[in-house]
Design goal:
It contains eight helices and seven strands; from the N terminus they run ββαβββββααααααα. The protein is α+β, with helices and mostly antiparallel strands. It has two domains: 109 residues, Beta-grasp domain (Ubiquitin-like (UB roll), Roll), CATH 3.10.20.30; 119 residues, Fumarate Reductase Iron-sulfur Protein, Chain B, domain 2 (Orthogonal Bundle), CATH 1.10.1060.10.
Length: 246
Amino acid sequence: MNLTLKIWRQKGPQDKGRMVEYKVTDISEHMSFLEMMDVLNESLVAKDEEPIAFDHDCREGICGMCSLQINGEAHGPDRGITTCQLHMRMFKDGDTIYIEPFRANAFPVIKDLVVDRMAFERIQQAGGYISVNTSGNTQDANSIPISKHNADLSMDAASCIGCGACVASCKNSSAMLFVAAKVSQFALLPQGKVEAKDRVKNMVFQMDLEGFGNCTNTGACEIECPKGISIENIARLNREYLAATI
């Protein structure tokens, strides 16, 4: 395939940034999107031009670092996948593809397509932990009875990889789905009950402090989430927060 790429280039956080057009040729439909980006960067390096900065690590859909806004969609036109799992067969020969970083005030651009998502880390640090008795008299977790329903819901919430697609796809740049997943993960299990009230209050406070918007139930976050995190978790977050503040 021969493609036209319109890519956001920004030298640094204070730079204005702009869209730059590139042409790529002989792209295989079996390539991943990031492999296509590698081909482009190799051609830029060969011409002594600065390659495009973009985030990636595992390239297995686990870490979430590869987050890109592709043709206006977080992680591109496919569903239930991260950018590194997006294949070029989703596009057609001659297509023009717009590639941008995730857009949110809380996700400032570092360079080109790389954004700073440390806001998520600070939210987790505010309450994403459980108390563990390390005295030597710890109770085996497998001996604590938990209903399969709650265990399944907790595991579903725990599958959140913190990529930020929910924020990028929300018109309010809300992080409610991310925070809800982290709160639900522990709220559904007995191990998480100890800090339950402080956890939800502290994480919501930090979310607001970081400048994320609020949820207006459009559901875009669930649709674009590569792990299919349900917005039912947002309802649980609201219930947990209400109970903690009464």
